[in-house]
Design goal:
This protein has six helices and nine strands, in the order βββαββαβαβααββα. With 202 residues, the chain is α/β, with parallel strands linked by helices. The strands form two sheets. The chain has a seven-stranded mixed sheet with strand order 1-2-5-4-6-3-7. A two-stranded antiparallel sheet has the order 8-9.
Length: 202
């Protein structure tokens, strides 16, 4: 299956499993953007799909779940889009978890710095991830009638103001993290705003 020529795999974790709140909100209102926080080079979307499936069934687990993971090559859907999931740190009925669709963007290969050749090499790949996520975001906006202003950062929902999506929240020229001036986050929003989707759908 493809979403506008991007490979799209639906591989849902088991229903009513230990990492899902088992709630069906009346509507979806928000799209919540995350970075995986996992810089290991092998930890792409497929790796995270395998990871969340292990978490759903193993004895030792982290009570977290999200709907989609995106990398530079493909998209995985782990949880039905109309269901609630635990990804936004704002309780089962918070706007992020209950009425938000959680998207994890892979940062595999991130070198831990925001300059130099290694960063530029990583950024070339991550911009493909941003493009794929922008396509996905526009599709979700159309499907669920979600306005542009309801694209949120994990930071916006978390009571502890978690620094997520971390790599995108970095104000690279200023050398600090920022809600309003994250260099890559603003680049991503501009891409979502200006993207013209091809006619082909999945």
């Amino acid at each position: 299956m493809k979403l506008y020529n991007i490979p799209y795999t639906i591989h849902h974790i088991p229903e009513k499993c230990q990492i899902l709140p088992d709630l069906l909100p009346p509507e979806k209102k928000y799209i919540i953007i995350h970075n995986t926080g996992n810089p290991n080079p092998q930890c792409d979307a497929r790796w995270h799909d395998e990871y969340i499936h292990r978490q759903a069934t193993e004895k030792d687990f982290r009570q977290a779940s999200w709907h989609l993971t995106v990398d530079d090559k493909e998209i995985f859907e782990h949880v039905p889009l109309y269901e609630a999931a635990w990804h936004a740190s704002d309780t089962s009925y918070g706007r992020g978890n209950y009425t938000g669709i959680g998207i994890e963007m892979c940062v595999n290969g991130f070198p831990g710095v925001y300059e130099g050749k290694e960063f530029e090499k990583w950024l070339e790949t991550f911009r493909k991830t941003m493009y794929n996520t922008a396509v996905l975001t526009r599709w979700l906006m159309n499907m669920f009638h979600i306005p542009f202003e309801n694209i949120l950062q994990h930071y916006d929902c978390a009571p502890d103001r978690k620094n997520c999506p971390e790599q995108m929240r970095r104000d690279i020229p200023a050398g600090c993290f920022s809600r309003e001036n994250g260099t890559l986050y603003n680049e991503f929003l501009q891409l979502v705003k200006t993207l013209e989707l091809p006619e082909q759908n999945r």
